[in-house]
Amino acid sequence: RMSIMEQQIQLNDHNKQEYPPMHTCEHIVNRTMMNLFGCGRSVSAHIERKKSKLDYALETAPTEEDVKRLEEFGRWKRSSFSRNLAENAVIAQGLDVTTEFITQEEAQGRFDLKRLPEDASETVRIVKVGNYDECLCLGTHVKNTSEVGTFKVISHDWNEEAKRWRMRFKLQ
């Protein structure tokens, strides 16, 4: 009989080689979008070292003011931290990025398991960004959000027919 730790290590192979600061930023952007717009996590993601893009299913197009709120840079003190902080304020908090292993059964109701591949292992990996975000992920991340840099939206566009908002961003 295998120990619990040995069982936990049996995750599916992860074939993507992400740039950890950008990939960690994706987690924070997703949670911030969920908080600001009440939407789900991105429906499509293309994460690269120089620039990345994320697509979101939204009812209406975000305004320029919304984009500025998303970008807003850490003007908050640690003591006033809340789950609604904008992207750069979250990054500036210096939150630890940690992982936890649980079973798919334990993940039920806590996470959207629809995106798991058909042959997903029974053990799943949760990545947590402080107390701000947690999601299922096999990717590579920084150890602390202070390693991410400054999030900047380069451009964005709205597809009215598809009700999809695409955002392109970089880290400085």
Order of helices and strands: HHEEHHEHEEEE
* Rg calc: 17 Å
Mean pLDDT: 83
Low confidence ranges:
1-11, 73-84
Strand content: 25-35%
Helix % is: 10-25%
Largest sheet: 4 strands, antiparallel
Q: SS-based structural class? A: alpha+beta
Cα-to-Cα separation, first versus last residue: 49 Å
**Overall shape:** globular
Strand order of the largest sheet: 1-2-7-6
Count every helix, treating DSSP H or I runs of 4 or more residues as helices.
5
Per-chain topology:
Elements: H1 4-9, H2 20-37, E1 44-46, E2 52-57, H3 64-71, H4 87-92, E3 97-103, H5 104-107, E4 123-129, E5 133-136, E6 151-159, E7 164-171
Antiparallel strand pairs: 1-2, 2-7, 3-4, 4-5, 6-7
What would your notes on this structure say?
- The protein has five helices and seven strands, in the order ααββααβαββββ.
- The longest helix is centred in the first third of the chain and has 18 residues, at about 20-35.
- A four-stranded antiparallel sheet has the order 1-2-7-6. A three-stranded antiparallel sheet has the order 3-4-5.
- It has helices at about 5-10, 20-35, 65-70, 85-90, 105; strands spanning about 45, 50-55, 95-105, 125-130, 135, 150-160, 165-170.
- Strand 4 and strand 5 (about 135) form a beta hairpin.
- The model is unreliable at about 1-10 and about 75-85 (pLDDT under 50).
- It is an alpha+beta fold and about 170 residues long.
